[in-house]
């Protein structure tokens, strides 16, 4: 791939040693193109989340190389959206969104202005003064997305961000995410175990099977957006991916 | 309706208590010097005010209270935070804590007098020791109990140093637990005030000892009730402050 924004080569990660050695990821190669929405699917425990944690610097790989080619002026090349929104309950919505901007040299007023713009982008401008406990699950997750976008990252890392939501809210947020990526041109690395979700939002789907986690299949999806949900071509791809996943897990 | 009923019951209970208290010495069941009836308390209170003894004693005790509480709670929070954040520090101090922790605050009286003399600073020291451990353990536990996921959020947004972790996450997240400890300390410090003043530092405790040695038990009761009133005042103010600080909670 020419000029990838993320270039992962031979990445391995293991905990422990000897008998109790637990290999989570094994010599994984993955490149992500600028502006691409890459979705990683796989069953629980194959190291999908671990991969994101390594990129975020929250876990240290045992072997391999991870290169991030962010814009040089980008202070925070990557921002993370977790499965549970993980808002800070003692901060109002607006100050949660402004959280990552503290220490950026912006004044408080400038931080709040940026936060307000991000809240508008996720459609929550009216809730700026609320406390997190006053929000619904879907609203909390939108705030988490706004918080991640506020630091103007080159890459948005999303770790099963919609999996804890009801299906109606989930589909709403999938549409929202597609609109936001179209508007901002962000590169997105999105982890899920929901194949329908994957084929709806992805430019490319990578299947990780394991353990230890390694890439088992890869599908590019060039269908135009917005993609109608029960589209026959999408369902075809989803079926193909499902077959691939069950074949892999049968092998293991 | 239920509120009115429970308020009426509470008032009736208080009245019954006062009536019984009044009746026992009046009927000659107990010597009034041993149990002064409540009707003698307001006149005793007025006498203490006229003499100027009451305001002086109360102000003096309050200054010990505030200074001792601030010193003890301040040290308790500071060391509790360090101990909650650093396993190394906790391990290093584990046996020292075990050694010092069981010593009651009052056991420090001899040293307080030797180190500070019969001076206000001695009372402040006793009070500070009395509240230190409560606040220390409350703070340490609260920091230990902070959700690791939130700490990870700070890391994910680039706040990785211990000071940033403390300011951005640990301190605000631990505030509810620290406040619980502080509220307990608020009551504990009043107990220590009396104890600390009994050995002669001017204040409410000293005045009570003087009065009891003269068998002026009505005056003793005046100060007992004074302390109950002051504690009630502080506790209500603290609860209001706590409610405001924790307004983010559901």
UniProtKB/TrEMBL annotation, chain A:
Superkingdom in the source lineage: Bacteria
UniProt family annotation: Belongs to the ABC transporter superfamily.
InterPro entries, per the entry: AAA+_ATPase, ABC_transporter-like_ATP-bd, ABC_transporter-like_CS, ABC_transporter_ATP-bind, P-loop_NTPase, Sigma_54_int_dom_ATP-bd_1
Matching Pfam families: ABC_tran (PF00005)
SMART domains listed in its UniProt record: AAA (SM00382)
Name the record gives this protein: Aliphatic sulfonates import ATP-binding protein SsuB
Any GO molecular function: ATP binding
The enzyme's E.C. designation: 3.6.3.-
Record's keyword annotation contains Cytoplasm: no
Keywords: ATP-binding, Hydrolase, Nucleotide-binding, Transport
Originating species: Methylobacterium symbioticum
ABC transporter domain segment(s): 8-235
Tagged with keyword rRNA-binding: no
TrEMBL record, chain B:
UniProtKB keywords: Cell membrane, Membrane, Transmembrane, Transmembrane helix, Transport
Keyword Calcium: no
InterPro entries linked: MetI-like, MetI-like_sf
Annotated Pfam families: BPD_transp_1 (PF00528)
Location(s) in or outside the cell: Cell membrane
Record-linked Gene3D superfamilies: MetI-like
Principal location: membrane
Keyword Cell membrane: yes
Protein name: Aliphatic sulfonates transport permease protein SsuC
Gene coding for it: ssuC_6
């Amino acid at each position: 791939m020419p000029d990838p924004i993320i270039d992962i080569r031979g990445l391995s990660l293991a905990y422990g040693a000897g008998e109790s050695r637990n290999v989570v990821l094994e010599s994984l190669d993955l490149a992500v193109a600028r502006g691409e929405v890459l979705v990683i699917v796989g069953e629980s425990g194959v190291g999908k989340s671990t991969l994101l944690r390594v990129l975020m610097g929250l876990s240290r790989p045992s072997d391999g190389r991870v290169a991030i080619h962010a814009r040089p002026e980008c202070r925070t090349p990557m921002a993370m959206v977790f499965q549970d929104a993980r808002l800070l309950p003692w901060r109002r919505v607006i100050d949660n969104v402004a959280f990552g901007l503290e220490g950026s040299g912006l004044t408080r007023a400038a931080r709040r202005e940026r936060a307000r713009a991000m809240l508008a982008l996720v459609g929550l401008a009216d809730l700026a003064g609320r406390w997190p406990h006053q929000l619904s699950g879907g609203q909390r997750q939108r705030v988490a997305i706004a918080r991640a976008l506020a630091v103007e990252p080159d890459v948005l890392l999303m770790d099963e961000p919609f999996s804890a939501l009801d299906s109606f809210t989930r589909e709403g947020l999938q549409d929202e995410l597609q609109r936001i990526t179209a508007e901002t041109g962000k590169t997105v690395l999105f982890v899920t175990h929901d194949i329908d979700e994957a084929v709806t939002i992805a430019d490319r789907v990578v299947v990780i099977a394991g353990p230890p986690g390694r890439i088992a299949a890869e599908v590019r999806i060039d269908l135009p957006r917005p993609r109608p949900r029960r589209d026959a071509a999408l369902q075809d791809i989803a079926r193909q991916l499902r077959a691939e996943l069950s074949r892999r897990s049968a092998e293991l | 309706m239920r509120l009115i009923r429970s308020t009426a019951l509470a008032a009736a209970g208080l009245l019954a208590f006062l009536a019984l208290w009044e009746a026992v010495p009046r009927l000659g069941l107990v010597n009034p010097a041993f149990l002064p009836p409540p009707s003698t308390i307001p006149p005793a209170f007025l006498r203490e005010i006229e003499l100027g003894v009451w305001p002086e004693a109360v102000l003096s005790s309050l200054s010990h209270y505030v200074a001792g509480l601030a010193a003890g709670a301040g040290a308790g929070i500071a060391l509790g935070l360090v101990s909650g954040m650093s396993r190394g520090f906790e391990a290093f101090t584990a046996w020292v804590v075990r050694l010092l922790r069981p010593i009651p605050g009052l056991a420090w009286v001899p040293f307080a007098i030797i180190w500070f003399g019969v001076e206000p600073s001695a009372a402040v020291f006793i009070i500070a020791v009395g509240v230190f451990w409560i606040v220390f353990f409350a703070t340490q536990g609260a920091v230990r109990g902070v959700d690791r996921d939130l700490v990870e959020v700070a890391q994910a947004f680039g706040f990785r140093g211990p000071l940033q972790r403390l300011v951005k996450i640990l301190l605000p997240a631990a505030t509810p637990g620290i406040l619980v400890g502080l509220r307990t300390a608020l009551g504990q410090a009043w107990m220590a005030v009396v104890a600390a003043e009994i050995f002669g530092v001017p204040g409410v405790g000293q005045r009570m000892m003087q009065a009891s040695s003269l068998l002026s038990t009505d005056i003793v009761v005046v100060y007992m009730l004074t302390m109950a009133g002051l504690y009630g005042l502080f506790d209500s103010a603290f609860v209001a402050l706590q409610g405001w600080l924790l307004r983010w909670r559901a």
